[in-house]
Amino acid sequence: MIPEPARLLAFVGAAAVLILVPGPNLVYILTRSVAQGRRAGLMSALGVETGTLVHIAAAVLGLSSLIAASGVAFSVLKYAGAAYLVYLAVRALLHNELLDASGGAEPLPPGRLFRDGLLVNVLNPKVALFFLAFLPQFLPDGSDTASAHAQMAVFGVVFFVLALALDVTYALAGARARDWLGRRPRILRRQRFAVAGIYLLLGAYAVLSE
User: Fold this and answer.
1) Can you give the pLDDT of all 210 residues of the chain as single tens digits?
2) Ramachandran region of residue 173, left (φ > 0), alpha (ψ -120 to 50) or beta?
3) How many C-beta atoms surround the C-beta of residue 56 within 10 A?
4) Alpha-carbon distances of 66 from 61, 72, 79, rounded to whole Å
5) Quick check: 32 and 24 in contact, CB under 8 A?
6) Helices 24-36 and 191-208: crossing angle, nearest 10°?
7) pTM
8) For labeling, which of 42, 74, 82, 165 is most exposed (least CB within 10 Å)?
9) 147 φ/ψ sector (left φ>0, alpha ψ -120 to 50, else beta)
10) What is the Cα–Cα distance from 4 to 113, expressed in whole angstroms?
C-alpha cells in the first residue's frame, strides 16, 4: 500500500531535516573518502546505507522491538559497534592504508570498504531504535498489520534514497579534500593519526551517549 501523497510529503520533509544533521555515519564516509578517494567514499556510503536497509527491515519485521525490550541485546550491539570502531582506529595506525602522495599506499579493496560501512551502521542499535520510533509516526490511525508494514517499507526506501544522496555528496566532498591534502605533505603525514582519533571518538560516542 502506497502512503497518501500528503503523508509521504510530510515524511520526506521530516526525513530530510534529520538526514541533514551530521552524524557518525557521515563522519565515517567523509573520513574514508579523504583517506582513499572518491571510489572508497562511494563504496563506504553504499555499505552504510545497506546497513540502513537492514535496520529498516528490522523495524518493519519487529526485530527492533526485541532490541528495545532487551537491555542485553542492546548492550551487545552497542559494545560490538564500539569495538569495531576501535579496530578501525588501530588498523589506521598500524597499516599504510591512507592517502600516500607518492602512490605507495595499498588501497583497501572495495569489498572491505563496503563491509566496514555496513558493520559501522548495523552494529549501532540506536539506529535500529530510531527507525522503530520514527517510521510509525507517519502511519494513519487504524492501519492493519499488512498495511502498516507496507507503508513503513515505502517510508524506509524513501529514507534510504535521501540518505544515500547526502552520503554521495559527502564522499565527493571528501575526495576534493583529498586532492587538497595531496598538495600538502606535512599535513598528510599526520593524517592516519587524525583518522584513528576520529574512529576512537566515534567509538566513545557510541558507548557514552544516551
Assistant:
1) 677 888 889 889 988 888 887 777 888 898 888 878 889 999 999 999 999 999 888 888 876 666 666 677 677 777 877 787 787 778 767 765 544 444 445 677 889 999 999 998 888 877 877 887 788 888 887 667 778 888 888 888 999 999 999 999 999 998 888 777 666 656 555 666 766 777 777 777 767 765
2) alpha
3) 22
4) 10, 10, 17
5) no
6) 160
7) 0.74
8) 165
9) alpha
10) 38
Which residue type does 106 have? E
What is the distance between the terminal CA atoms of the chain, rounded to a whole angstrom? 35
Residue count of the chain, please give it.
210
Residue 52: name the closest of 134, 140, 174 by CA.
Answer: 134
